[in-house]
Design brief:
The protein is of the alpha+beta class. It is built from 15 helices and 5 strands. Helix 10 links the parallel strand 2 and strand 3. Helix 5 packs antiparallel against helix 6, helix 11 packs across helix 14 and helix 12 packs antiparallel against helix 13. The chain is elongated and about 75 Å long.
Length: 367
Amino acid sequence: MVAKSQLVSRFGGGGPVVVWLVLLCSCLGLFLTAMLSVAHVYGASLYCGASDDCGLVAASKLAAPMGIPVAFCGFGFYLSVCAASVAWIIKRKVFGIAPITWLCVGVAAASSVLTILAAIRLHAHCVWCISSNVVSIALALIFLLTDGRTWAVPEIGKMRRWPLSVMACLLGTSIAVGAVGLRSSSVVHGLKAEVLARLTLTDLAPADSLTVGAKSSDKVVVAFTDLECAACRGVLPFLVRSAKSGAFRLVVRMYPMPSHAGAFEASLALAKATVAGRGLEFLTAGCDLGDSGLEGIDNLARDLRTEELTPAAEASAEAIVRRDLSLAHQLGVNRTPTLLLLSGPHSPTVISVADLQRLLGVQLDEG
């Protein structure tokens, strides 16, 4: 058994297990923030379970407050802690621990605030962000729990009580947010059931909405969509084909996501085309535009001659978008595409694309 004096002398008065734990946590944080940074720079999509919450959070202002990407700041923070822990191991001497301690506390607090804001304002849970948040809180707790000179855990009476209490509360909150995120990413619910139960077919499928398929169909799929949403552009052709084949009646409702730049203008262009009687053409062509953004939408509107309508028609188009937005907010829609299924006399229910495919017995890539 190694004597306590020998253990202490190895790190100039520090416990090696704690130092290696700091190095492990900082390396994990480096990996998480490096992935988030690469996704931010190249616009890549990270695996986020069954939801698109990671993309939603990455596209929001919370990912880059004041234009500064949070992922870059996090990477710099973990790199600093990692470098310090390596220096402590090589030099076998503890130095500069107080600034690192309070840096960890500040970063953990800021990370927790952003995580909670994403859950409250965006109704979204990015597993990468939450994981980084938990790692930063763990680092803060390690530094707060250990003595800066000896790396030993001091007596309870000498611990920094209030920052420890704050960090413990933040850790519990972050874990709770993560648990809710994991649940919501695997279950396609989240809409306000009491509002949904009150809605009728007329509420969900008004006569002036873009409709595809036979109106006599006993199955109706209502799709809240956004042409600036890549996932929507991938799903809409499948929905249109299925509706044309008689599987159901498709009703397209506009929900321009707040996190998608130009989404309202794109939805307004689709509404104008619908008012002009060319909504399906616009929708089909719009799904082929890729990431061309508003420039592609504007060019499409010019090609179909739907960019300039009479003042009354333009007012009707804007009213459609705002009405759809109002309904989406009442229901609690927070992502696109969101699909509702109405079948016969049953109340409308939320359905995922995968469940709809299973219901129809087809695959997304079938022509």
